Amino acid sequence: MTRLAPNFTHAVTLTMKQSRTVMTDKGQTIHRLTEIEASANFAHFMKRLNAIVYGHAAKRYGKTVHVVPVIEGIATDKGLHYHCMMGNFREGADDALITAAIRTAWLQTGFGNVQIDVQPMYGDGWIDYITKEVGKGDSDNVDYDNVHPRKQ
C-alpha cells in the first residue's frame, strides 16, 4: 500500500447499516449485513461512483476511480464499515465535487449509511490507520475483490 500511496488523493470512510428491512412475498424481514454482502454493496457503490465521475466512459473505455478498500469490524465488535484510499478522479474535480460524488453513490446502495468522511490524503498516516486491525484476527481485511486498478 505504501508503494501505491502516491497514486491516491483521498482518504474515505464509509459507514454501513448493519441491517435493513426487506419486503419479501411473505412480508417484511430483517436482512443482516455480512462480510460478503458488504463487499457486494461496495462493488455496487464503485459502479455508481464510476458512472458519476466518468459517465459512459466508465463502461465504454473502462475508466475507473482507483481504490483500495479495507473493511473494518470483521473480527471486532465494531459495525462493518470501509476505509479507503481513492484517486484517479476526473481532472479538474475539486474536493467538494469528489465528496458529493462519493456521498451520492454511497447513499444509492442498499447498506450505505449517512456517516461519510472524505479528506485529502497526505503521507502514510492513513495507511497506518486503515490497517490497524491487522493482527487482531483481521489480517486479510483488504477487500481484494474491489481493489482497482488490480495491477500496478
Write up this protein.
Strands 4-5-1-6 form a four-stranded antiparallel sheet. Strands 2-3 form a two-stranded antiparallel ribbon. It has one domain: Alpha-Beta Plaits. It is built from four helices and six strands, in the order βββααββαβα. The protein has helices spanning 35-54, 57-60, 95-107, 125-130, and strands spanning 10-16, 19-24, 27-32, 66-72, 81-87, 112-120. α1 (35-54) crosses α3 (95-107). It is α+β, with helices and mostly antiparallel strands and 152 residues long. The protein is globular, with a radius of gyration of 16 Å. The mean pLDDT is 89.
Topology record:
Layout (H helix, E strand, L loop, with lengths): L9 E7 L2 E6 L2 E6 L2 H20 L2 H4 L5 E7 L8 E7 L7 H13 L4 E9 L4 H6 L22
Helix pairs in contact: 1-3
CATH topology: Alpha-Beta Plaits
How far from one another are the termini? 11 Å
Q: What's the overall average pLDDT, rounded?
A: 89
- Helix count, per DSSP? 4
Stretches where pLDDT falls below 50 for ≥5 residues?
Answer: none
Give the helix level as a range of percent.
Answer: 25-40%
What overall form do the CA principal axes indicate?
Answer: globular
Number of domains: 1
Order of helices and strands: EEEHHEEHEH
Side by side, the strands of the main sheet go: 4-5-1-6
Q: Please provide the count of β strands.
A: 6
Describe the largest sheet: 4 strands, antiparallel
Specify the structural class. Answer: alpha+beta
